[in-house]
Amino acid sequence: MAGISDYNRYKDLDLDFIPHPVSGDVVQKVGADAVKRSVRNLIYMRIHEKPFQPHIHSTVRNLLFEPATPLITIQLKKSISEVLTRNEPRIKLIEVGVQGHEESYKITIRYGIKNQPKVETVLLNLKRLR
Fold first, then answer.
1. Global pTM value
2. For the chain, what are the domain ranges?
3. pLDDT for 26-40, tens place per residue?
């Protein structure tokens, strides 16, 4: 039975480095929170940021330097979809929504964690860089 036990084994560090109130150790993210953290990390990851694995990266940050056009919105959606489907085997991507505004993009990512019935949503607000 792979479902529940595999789900509970998903672990990641909380990159906010919030210490545990009792032990003082860095708190771990587990289950859906760990997968959500991984999704966010993959979207923000630049080429060569992950040592010895330059193929794991996203072009999202590069696209934020470009003027806001419908084409950039399409490229953002494609970049996010590709990085998640290639590098996050724990999820089944359902939808990536990108709404462009003058100075920012609202990103909505909907996915299911494999062997889990619940649909998870990640909301991001990316600001354009000049």
1. 0.80
2. 3-13+25-127
3. 777 778 888 998 899
